[in-house]
Amino acid sequence: MPLLLLSAGVARGEVARVEIARRADVGASGYEKIVGRIHFAVDPQDPHNRIVVDLEKAPVNRSGRVEFSSDLYILSPKAPRGNGAALVEVLNRGRKLMLEGFNRSVSPDPEAESELGDGFLMRFGYTLVWVGWEFDLDDQPPAMRIQVPIATDRGTAITGVVRAAFTPNARATEFPVTDLSKYDASDPDGPESQLTVRPKMFGTRGEPIPRSRWRVRGHTVTLDSGFEPGKTYGISYRASNPPVAGLGLVALRDTTAWLKHQPEAAAPVRYAYGFGVSQSGRVLRDFMYQGFNTDEHDRQVFDGVLSHIAGASRISLNERWAKPIAGGASGAASFPFADASVRDPVSGAREGLLDNNRMRGHAPKVFYTNTPVEYWGSRAAALVHTTPAGTADLPLPENVRVYFIAGTQHVPSRFPPVVTNGQQTDNAVDYWWTMRALLLAMHKWVKEGVAPPPSLYPRLQDHTLVPAAAIAFPAVPGVSSPRSLAAGERIANPLLPGGAGGGAPLPLLVPQVDEDGNERAGIRLPDVAVPLATYTGWNFRQPAIGAPGELVSLLGSSIPFSATRAAREATKDPRKSIEERYRTRDEYLARVGEALDALVMKGYLIYDDGPRILQRATDQWDLLVPERSPAPKR
Description:
The protein is of the alpha+beta class. The chain contains ten helices and 26 strands. β1 and β2 form a beta hairpin. α9 runs antiparallel to α10 (610-624). The relative contact order is 0.10.
């Protein structure tokens, strides 16, 4: 029988009750695990909730409130170990990622202390919180979900046209469109059902496929001639019963407010930081933009936000027919892109992510961290810090820092890196060491007022940010040039008139590189500052999966230097070989140590992580160079 906790906040909506199904110590870690379900009841007439699309069309209880519930998971330090701060991770498609990233853990549901990885987050006393916000996931643990009501027109089913795009990697006659997994076709043979095909993901319009050649049942499309790998298909059809998806943002708001302001909460805290990776980083950008950082009592929700690898994009959750599960590879960015209010030359609108009438004076301290991947493509990361047309740098607000982590990919590949869907080996440069340092910096900024490390990112003014056509990438044999790529199109913003230029092309501004092909600006980790390879945020598709002139979504490359001058000259590689750069392994590792120390001094790495960073450098050398000698002690 689950333990029931009541919340005093029910009088104003917020948390109605919490059912705790499991509560147990995580070995001898000094942490306990709290697992259950959190129930909400919100007033659709409250001004803080009126922005939720279709909330007025949801069923209400006898008190006139809309009810919904979410999965809840908390790892809470036992007194006196806690630092008073909750790290609220916005789940990525129902998955917990911060334990693996910050803690080097492999378990999403730790039972023993050993399953907490190296215990980094526990060592500093953070309360770790996850709450379901996404409705379009299968109910399969460990994925965490939210259950929201269906909107109706006074009891009559609502219908509408849904759309999605997909790019197969292999030939097939059937394709389940995951982005539409909760929207089965209600009229599969109706006039709105259309299937198009285009040769590229960006820059071309789709050609319609004759209706007699394809069928849709549920959310699976069948094409008689088969889907061709590498081509991009667009599907549309009429569906019914839209969920009130925007309640996912309310769940994040009210769970965090409950922990901060209700003494009887399962794990009360003083500070709260929102953390999101990729999809969930985009959620946090939209959470702030739409005004959810103010709760129903006009209190600030997140004191700090760490939006990681989201680029300039947001997620379209608070709308009818939302598709949060979608990857956003073919379009995810809509105006406004930057935090400060600027005029959009396309639509004429003037607004900022943090500078609009919904913010209510509750803008948090914000870190935006991005890799090169978020610059190359539809996430248009450069627009976080440039004008909407990409013609000038923008000053950052005082409460915002932007960090570009050079030479990394969206999520680090395993080491040793391998070739997957790209023409080059994947990129295994590990940015989580920097993320650990930045998390500690955020806490000091909020709690103690200690300024974090300065922003580091490419800029137009010093030519470290350039149009893709101007990239000075060296002519490495067997490596395609990225100069002719396109960025895709804006998606519409339903909060602004006319959608704020939805469909307009996005500018493609990317970080400039040095003679080795490594980015010049940003946080240059030892891998990049003392390189053994070229590390990129792009990787062209293998011919076997089609469209070899297009990029693999979210993948980077590592292109090793030749070990010797003779090998370099034999292949006509313009980059210096390893033996031309470093006389010995010891010299290489000593220079890595110097680069590491410089980053520690500036606050972009933690001293205690140095030995493991140095060990990875040793492993990289041994992978690429046959010579072996003892590594210097640190």
